[in-house]
Every structure is written in structure tokens, then in C-alpha cells.
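P-loop NTPase, Candidatus Chloroploca mongolica. C-alpha cells?
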Amino acid sequence: MELIIFTAMDGLATHIEQFRDLAVLSPSQLDQVNRLIEGTRPPDALYLDDTRAAPLAELWRTATLARRTGVRVFVNFPGTARAALNEAQGAGLPALAERDPAVVATWLGEQLGLRPGTGLRSSAVIAVGAAKGGIGKTFATCVLAEGLRRRGLQVLVWDSDISNPGLVPAFRVPSSAPSYLHLIQRGPAHWNPTGIEPFIYQPEHTRGTAEGWGAIDFLIGSHAVARAENDVRLPDWQGFYHGTAALSGYDLIIVDTPPDYLRRPYATHVLQSGGTVILPTPPGARERMGVGHLLDHLRDHAPDSLERCTLLFIEPERGVTATVPDVAALFQRRYPQVRPLGTLPRAPRLASLADEHDGYISMLDLGPHSTFAGAVHRVADTLCVRLGLQPTLPMPRSSFWARMHARLRGDRALVLPTPAVA
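C-alpha cells:
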């Protein structure tokens, strides 16, 4: 069954995920809802409420269109449209006035005759967002995934930036890896854990180790497939997101989102669905301005969820006069709900060695006792605490003498492992 929900109610989509055999689409505009209803494959049911402050006349127009095409319609008017509740019930629409997302989800399940599943998803979801390219989004995704893997966690990385799939070269993903874009084209009936699992790429070079490390798996959107099949519609992405979030076996799902957040508000949807948004924040003027624009957008569309946004500061490049403490104080004054996650130092030598290596190798392997590695492990530990993750391994630490020895030799004595992927 396919259900469209038009709502800004925080956490409603998350509660609806407890039902079996249900694909949920969450468009943010009524014209998107209308296009889906008028399409060749209309949904089975539609839920509308007044939490997005849409005019009541437009809500009625959408409800009428849906009923004309045979779509079941459910309305919830807890806010400004509450006076129209009796009118909706008189027209034969199942209706209520409720602000609690858990109560609304239970009511919807009863109306649709759905059975509860095993409960809400067990894995946390974070979106790494940015308002411009080259800000360090893919870099942050890579180091966070590797840092969490070293704590014994199972991580799924979803590359949803199909216009510029930076994770493909970073992790040496071959062109033969399955593309989830093929699955999206098959339709909502396949957007469930059973349908998604065969499209997850599990490379050998990010498997678990004898030391107890976890694994990193991938959902990749091939650039070639993206060109051939055009673009992914926002409602399709949202429906696929709910199927991905319901996957079992992962402690954390990291979504690498595209920078055009107005046309592809993927980070906004993750936040509205109960997830966390991490924004890489270099202190340069253009970079911090882009972060501010994205935070303003998130505050407009999910004002009650801004405390689940966090800033990952990145030390400035050579020549930038602004410092991380100055920029951190600026954001603290303007967005007091947003907390910092930590600061990553620049490590150009380690980054260059990793890029030039024949196969995949992490910067944490090239400089295990470096200042950079220590910062990554502290950031990963802070993230575990905030998300309530339970690592099976303690945070890696280096002794003073190991750090001094590594600094004196510049890590030049490090022997590179044999590449896993040529």
C-alpha cells in the first residue's frame, strides 16, 4: 500500500514506519501531491493536515481531486483549520484534531487496517548537508563512517548526491556496483528492506576485522544511470528514504546529500523524519554564509527540530584569516539551538597519500597517531553519545610517545597495506 502524507508534524513519518507493507511518500508542496494523484500510478491513500499552513481552500481542492480518482482521504485539523472539522466529517471524510504524532499514526493504521511491524527503526539516521559544493561534505562523510567503524559499529552510507557522486572515487567503488536508481524506477512496491538489500554494495575493503571493527556498506547512485534515467523526483526519494530507514542490521545510516537544498531538500526531510543533520563548517566567508542559508531553511521548515542540527567545524585553509572560535561564537549567537560537534584539522599530506594510493585506504590508517586521527575519534565519540549509539570498542587513543614518534618521523615509516581494489 502507498500512502501520501502532507504534513509538517515532527515525527509522524517515523511513527507510521511501524506498519508493515506500507510505502510512505512525504511531498512538501501541494502541487507535488496533486501531480502524484493525477499520475498514471495514484496512491492508495492520502493524509492531509494543516501543519504546513496551506490555505484551507487548497487542501479541499486536493482532497476533492483525490476522492474523484478513487484515493482514500484522511484529514487532521488541529490548528488554524479546526473550524472546518465538522464540514470534513459531514462530507464523509475520516477526520480528527490531534497534535500528537503517535496518536495520529495509530489512528491512520486503524483506518487503513494495517498491522504493526516489529516497531520503529533501530538504526539512527544522519544527513550530511551543505549549501555549496566543495565545502567538505563528502570528506566529512568518509571520516565519520571510518571513525564509527573503528568503534565496532555497522554503518550504511547512502550517496544521494547523484549529480556529483564523490563517495564513488573516495571509497574506490567500481562501476559494476549495483545502483539503487534502478530500484527507484521499479516503483514504491519495491521500496522496502527486502527490495533494497540486494542493491547494497558490500566491498571487501570495508568489512569487519579481527580487531572487532564494524563494516561500511553503500547505497550508490551511479552517475551513468542518473544521466540515462534523468532525475529522482522528490516524492520518490522520500518514499525510498523510509524503506532505507527501516533496514535492519545497521547502527547508523549516513546520507550524503546534494548541495542544491531548495530543489532537493533531502536534509530537511531527514530532520522532519526524526533524524540528525550534520553541517561541515569551514570558517571562510562564503562557506559560513552557505551554512547560514541552509540553517535558515531548516529553521523555516522544521523549527522544532533545530536542536538536532550540529556543526562540524573544519580548520581554515592557508590564507583564511577567520578562525574556528570566532565563527563558532557567531553561529552560537545566531542559532543557539545548534550545537558544535567538534573540529577537524586539515591534513593535506594524509589526504594526498590516500588519494594517490592504488586502492582504498583511510587517512586514519595512514596517520593513526596524528592530530587528525585523534580529532576524528573525538568527533565520532561525541556523535555516539548524542545519538545514543552503543559502541563495542573503546575510543582509540595514542600515547604521548607514540604521537611524538609519529610527528618526528612524519609518518613516513608507515608501510602502506596491499590495496584491496586495483
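The radius of gyration is 23 Å.
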